Structures are given as structure tokens and as C-alpha cells.
User: Fold these one by one.
Assistant:
Number 1:
Amino acid sequence: MTEEDIARFATDLRGPLIQPGEAEYDAARKLYNAMIDRRPRLIARCVDAADVMSAVRFGRASGLPIAVRGGGHNGAGFGGVDDGLVIDLSLMRGVRVDPTNRTVRVGGGCTTGEVDHATHAFSQAVPFGIISTTGVAGLTLNGGHGYLSRQYGLACDNLIEADVVLADGSFIVANETENADLLWGLRGGGGNFGVVTSFLFRTHPANMLHGGPIIFDLSDATAVMRWYREFSRSAPAEFYIFLGLQSVPPGDPFPREHWGKKMCVLLVAHTGNTAETAIADARAALPKPLIDWVGPISYLALQGMFDALNPPGMQWYWKGDFVDTLPDAAIAAHLEHAAKLPSTFSLMHLYPIDGAVHGKANDATAWSTRDATWSMVIAGIDPDPAKAAELKAWTVGYWSAVHPFDRAGAYTNFMMGDEGEVRVKASYGENYPRLTALKRKYDPGNLFRVNQNILPAG
Ligand SMILES: Cc1cc2nc3c(=O)[nH]c(=O)nc-3n(C[C@H](O)[C@H](O)[C@H](O)COP(=O)(O)OP(=O)(O)OC[C@H]3O[C@@H](n4cnc5c(N)ncnc54)[C@H](O)[C@@H]3O)c2cc1C
């Protein structure tokens, strides 16, 4: 790769090509997780599919390793790569809602908040995750769970079409009738098969609901977790609660007397007509909370409620698991480690992946875990880079204690880059051989390998 090659590539692009030493370089290479510091050789900020096609062809010809960046939120930092080419879609943020057909067309670099904003005007939503600054691409391609998942499934279940640039630089459309095998792989198989320049999602009714946090002192966590495991068995799909073990954030609007206290939190979202009664019944069965802020709230407000508590630029080390049940011994292990949180930002969350997520067969999409109850994440988080080793040690220690109660695999978005093929394989279960065959068909040379990598068969 000569300077001339790079200059020719730059003229092929309509978007900017950024190189080390340029004024925009440091901002453009920055990832959400500050624990990962990548120094790419080139960052191609694409503005359309033509740019992405040029970038893939250039990357392939140059032999540079390629990272694809949507929202840049990935915990493992797969939106960047040292000495390689970043194909950055963050300028491709168009959103078009079709209220008649109840669909939304989304650019490959959109954040979930941008889509939520557009669909909310039509009282519609796609079931995305709980932080609105997350990229649609990485979230959807790996699965995507959030407040509406018990009702409407994963984000990837609602993906009905994708425009994709393949490893040879060609462009194809994948939907139920055209290249249906590729659509199957994009529904959970990550960025392994190509670069998605545009997504088409089905939308669902969502506007006002009853939601917000109920916060308990950690000393009540055993009772809350026992209640929660029973709740999960019987609650209707419209009643969603995720559970967290973490600290009360030390700042407004939290009451000063609770700042920094270790807590067990229930994050509630009830979209049905019986919300008030159902939540009152839950309150009656639970211990007395420190804070109860559940009330009427718009879906849009709930989606952005925790953005300020999760700014970019912190150190993150996380590990996950798929979880079926919460026996008392598992609860005890959780509480032993939650009592030793290494910072006020660190956390354990259990996100429901039952309800509508169970409505499909395990082999209906690349995401194969359609019979577990929760997707768990344990995350050591802090702004101070000096704490990186401590965050990792706490996360690994906590995970090692609870993992014997869990499944072998995890949500691929809740893994760092150090988990290895065994865990990726376990996460896809019986779908893994089909995924490796699909990888051989669409990316036989493993051009797209800066991800939770699926190796081409053979
Ligand atoms: C604070 C926080 C909260 C979160 N909450 C949730 C949650 O509630 N629910 C949930 O499901 N997940 C959640 N996640 C996980 C999140 O979904 C992942 O981190 C996801 O990978 C982020 O996607 P991104 O596009 O921002 O990431 P990026 O870093 O840009 O990319 C992530 C991966 O996707 C690939 N990729 C990106 N764009 C494309 C594209 N256009 N085409 C092909 N491949 C592409 C990349 O190569 C990379 O492997 C959360 C993450 C954070 C940091």
C-alpha cells in the first residue's frame, strides 16, 4: 500500500478519509470503552453504500485488518483496530418511518436514540436496548434486548431487511425472499458476514407506559431476588423488569442520604392497561424500598433515562452469561461479590430474554438461546484508568463464582475480546455449524474478523 494508493482511495470516497496526525484523528478513533485504545492506519468515514463498497475493496486489496464501526459502543472495542482500516458508518444516520406499513428504515451508523426519536412521533418503537447512545448496528446484529423484548422479541427478530456490502465489495439485499440465509445470519451472528449499510425494522405500538426504578438497600437483595425469580415465571409479557446490583449514583436527582449505597434495583416497564394494579401488587410483595420512582413515563424518556449515568470515556470490563434459574446458592454468590463492588459505576444486571423471545425456535435465527430466562452482565466500570486491573479482577472473580449456575454461553455483546472461540461457539449452540457454513459462503477469507469471530467452515 503506497501513499498513492491511499490518495486514490481518498478520491473514491465522498466522506472523509482520516489518517494519524490529522486534527480529527483522535476524536474519530475514540471508542466508548476507554479501556480499549486503538490506533488505526486509516478511518474511512463513509456517507453511503458506494463509500462502503470502495472501503471494503480497498481494505481487502491492501491487506489491512478491517474494523466496522456503527455506534462505537462495543465493550470489546471492535469498532476500532490497530494499524488497520476502520470502516466508520457514523455519518450514515438517516431514519425514515413508514407509519402505514409500520416499518422504519435506518442508516447503518444510527444510534438507537435517533430511531426511538423518529418512531416515537408515530407512537411506534423497535425493541432496542436501554441506553439510547448505543449503535443500532452492533446491538441488532448480535441480538439486542431491552424493555420491549418480552413483548416483541429481540431487535434482530424485528429486522426484516438489510442492505449489505459483502467481503468482495459487492452489494446485496437480504430479506425473507432474497438471500434469506444471510438475513438468518444477520439476526444474531454479529458483523461476521458483511457491512450493513441500511436496516429495515418492523415497528410496534409504544408510547406512554408505567416505568422507572425501585431501589432497595442491598440488605434486602435476597428477598428481592427470590421474589424476582418467581415474578419471571408468571409475569405477562407486557410486564418487564430487569434487576441490578449496583450503587446509588452519587448525584442528583438521587437523595443525598443514599448516595453511594449498595443497592438492588428493579427497572420496571409495564406497557399494559393493568399496569397500576400489577405494580401495586408487586410493591405489596416486596420489601420497603429506599426509592420508588415508578410512574407514568413515555417510552422515549425511559430509553434515555440512564444515558447521563453512562457517558463515553469510562473504563469497562464485562462478562456475561445466559441464565435459566436463580437458586438460593446463586443468589448468595451474587451478593457476596456485589458487596465488593470496585466502584460506584460497577454493576450486575439480569435482563429478561423470555416472553416473545421464546416464541421462536432456537434455529429460527442465528441467535439461538430461546429458552433461557435472563442475559446477565457483570461490568467493572470506572473513569480512572488506574483502576483497570481492579475492575477486571472483580468482574472475573464475580463471574467465576456465578458461572457454575449458568449456561456455557453468553450474549456476544457482553463479552470482551478475550473470551475465545469456545465461548463464541457455546453462545451459538447448535447453530454454530450453520453459521460457519454461512461464513464460508459470504466471507471465506474471514475479512470481517474484528468481532466475536465465527470461523469459516473448513
Ligand atoms: C452502556 C451500554 C449499555 C448497553 N445496553 C444494552 C442493552 O440494553 N441491550 C443490548 O442488547 N445491548 C446493550 N449493550 C451492548 C451493545 O448492544 C453492544 O455494545 C453493541 O455492540 C454496540 O453496537 P455499536 O454499533 O454501538 O458498536 P460498534 O463498536 O460500532 O460495533 C460493534 C460490533 O458490530 C459490528 N458492526 C458495527 N456496525 C456494523 C455494520 N453497520 N455492519 C456490520 N457490522 C457492524 C462491528 O464490527 C463490531 O463487531 C450496551 C452497551 C453499553 C456500552
Number 2:
Amino acid sequence: MATTKRHDVKDLALAPEGVRRIEWADRQMPVLQSIRDRFEREQPLAGYRVAACLHVTTETANLMRTLKAGGADVVLCASNPLSTQDDVAAALVDEFDISCFAIKGEDNETYYQHIEAAVDHKPHLTMDDGADVIGVLHSARREQLGEIIAGTEETTTGVIRLKAMEADGALAFPVIAVNEAKTKHLFDNRYGTGQSTIDGIIRATNVLLAGKRFVVAGYGWVGRGVALRARGMGAHVIVTEVDPMRALEALMDGYEVLPMADAAKIGDIFCTATGDKHVIAREHVEVMKDGSILANTGHFNVEIDIPAIRGLAEETREARQFVEEFTMSDGRRIYLLAEGRLVNISAAEGHPAIVMDMSFANQSLAAEYAVQNAGTLERKVYPVPQAIDEEIARLKLATMGIDIDQLTEEQAKYLASWDEGT
Ligand SMILES: NC(=O)c1ccc[n+]([C@@H]2O[C@H](COP(=O)([O-])OP(=O)(O)OC[C@H]3O[C@@H](n4cnc5c(N)ncnc54)[C@H](O)[C@@H]3O)[C@@H](O)[C@H]2O)c1
């Protein structure tokens, strides 16, 4: 199909493969499908332009199809230079007639040009994974701020940035924090990232995890998923934390807890999942064993101090695709995966569709909610309304064929009372 949509993708000839993979993912996204069917009938987003900046994957393509079905005029750009699936980008443009700006491996300059191209779409709604569109709108494109009704934000790091903007009085429009929905972070961050991070590390290196010392930095929703799956593969998992409550949880979940300075000396594989900066720093790399593998699954590529590693290395070469080998002056070799970017989306395919079904159901319904409540929302970061969150859980269970019990009238009354004891 000859597209009329603006785009910058690697190669439109990749579209047929992208279409097949998008359809494959769609079969595992029944909740999103049901929302798409309703959107098609009700057109809740008719007349609205949406600029989305998300990982350009098969699952995201199905979200874009859903927004379009709801009447929105959509543009998509990448939320990470390495996470784009080029066949999906091609399919979006060529088959689904959706504007897309994303090329896997694009440099930083192109990455930001693509965000600017999305902002050129003059959106009424923004949809971010890491707050980059909102960042550009609040700096280089302030003249467009007045046209924006609301935004949505997909990930923990983005929500942290946006809450900081709200606290500073800098946030110019309301944003719905999709990450805060239970049907998002409890499943996507934990099970989706947990599985796909291990997948990315294995695809990049083909190492055996059994018997390895696997260090997970951060025991949040992502960290606990990674730790759980690494343990499942037979690794001895060590957790590093700064939060005493989470360190205690990690300990009682059966993991060894150490400061990074100690873990660095004994770990074989390291994976950061903190949303924080320089969690693996120069002094840690200096004491690591020969052959240590370093990966990150937190949002930005700042968790590992990569410039420090480059500074320490005498020689650098690509050992395999997505594996950079740094040889130190004492002969030790340290391996960095996927340039320190999200390893699960850079070296593997990201979260399985079945969890993204819930995340993107939240995105779709958050967009609808934002439009419906345009006049009343303030310039704040809002959670996804509980009713939407619970409805998604109910729908998800139904699509999985799982029934649960209902409170009896007597139980409902008992749980709401305070006067009945033993
Ligand atoms: N790879 C993916 O696909 C994917 C998916 C979801 C979220 N994320 C990203 O992963 C990161 C973590 O998300 P989350 O939902 O688990 O967040 P979270 O807030 O639940 O957990 C982060 C944890 O890291 C800990 N931490 C912070 N600084 C630390 C340090 N210096 N050393 C050790 N621990 C430290 C915090 O105490 C916290 O327990 C974020 O950047 C988020 O955006 C990535």
C-alpha cells in the first residue's frame, strides 16, 4: 500500500514480516482487542492527534492500531535508540497507515529528530515511556503546550521525572501515570521484564546461568522479577539495594544481600534495575573478575558508568552482537551488553505480548479517560482510576478462562462492619 503518512523507517520492504509478527502478538492481547472493537464502534478519540513515544515493538503496534480505531490521528517515535523492531516500524507505515519515526540503532541526534517529528504532529495527547516527548514540549516547544489536553506515562523513571516537574510547578498539563496501575507494574515490570531480561542476556551471550553468581541491583518491581527468573535458571542471586525495606524483603525472599562494593568482587553477571545513576561505578569495575558480564534493564543507559569503563579499558572490541569486550591493563575482560541500554528490548524482543496486553489496555483507557475529563484534570500526575485498573484485571482473568469467587452478602456485610468479633 502506498502510504501518505510522514515516516522515517529503515526499509518499507520489511513490512510483510512486521505484519505477521504484529498479528502474532495480537493473538495474545485479547483485552486490547476488546477495547479496539469498542473504540471502533464508539470513536472516543475522534478528532484528537496523539504523539506516542514508545518502544516500537509488535505490542506497541497493536496499541497504535487501537488508538487509530478509536478515531485518533497517531504518530509514533521510538523511546529508545536500540529498541525499535524495523519490520514493525515498516508495517505501521505501509500496512496500517500510521506515521512512524524509528530506526534500530539510530544515533542520539536522529533519536531526538524523531521526537521532534512526532511533536510536529501538533498533538493533543502525548503518550510517553520515559517522558521524552513531554521533555521536548516543556523545553524546545513550549509554544505547543497550550494545545495539549493531557499525557500518559508508561514507566517508573518517567513517572519520577514527571512528579519532580509537578513538585516544581513546571508541569504544564495533566499526566496519567500508567505505570502506577497495578495491572501494569505488578505484571509488566515484574514478570514481563523479569523474563525478557533473562532472555536478552542469554540471547546476547548464550551463557549458562546455572551455578553463576547473578547480581541484581535494585529490588523494585523489575529487580524482583529478574531475581526470581535468574534463580529459576539455577543462578545464585545476590541483591544490592539502598532501601532497607526492600533489602529486607530480598533477604527474606531467600537472596543474599550485599553492598555493590562486595558483590562486584564475586559476581559473574550483573544486571542493574534501579532507575538510578552509576549504580555500577568505576570502583566496582576495578575489582570485578575477569569475564564479568554487565547488563542494564532500567530505563536509561546511565545505571552503569560506561564512560568510566571506557576510560579504564586498554582495548575495546565487539565480541559478539550486543556484547562489547573491554580489556583492562591487568588483562581482565569485562563485557557490556547492548551499550548499557535496556537489555530486554535491545538484545531480545521485550515483554511478551500477554503482559503488554494489560499495560496497553491501561494506555488506551487512560487516553479515553483523559479526553473525557479534559476540563477537570489539573496540571498534576494522576494515577489510573481504580475502576479502570480493576476492570482490566477482571477482563484479563476472563480472557484467560479463570473464574474467581464473589463475596456473599453476609461476607460483604462482615467485612464492612466493626462490631463482630470471635
Ligand atoms: N526493561 C524494561 O522493559 C522496563 C520495564 C519496566 C520498568 N523499567 C525501568 O526499570 C527501572 C526500575 O523500575 P521499577 O518499577 O523496578 O522501580 P522501583 O522504584 O520499584 O525499584 C527501583 C529500586 O531500585 C532501588 N535503588 C535505587 N538506587 C539504587 C542503588 N544505587 N543501588 C541499589 N538499589 C537502588 C530502589 O530502592 C528501588 O527499590 C526504572 O528505570 C523503570 O523505568 C524497565
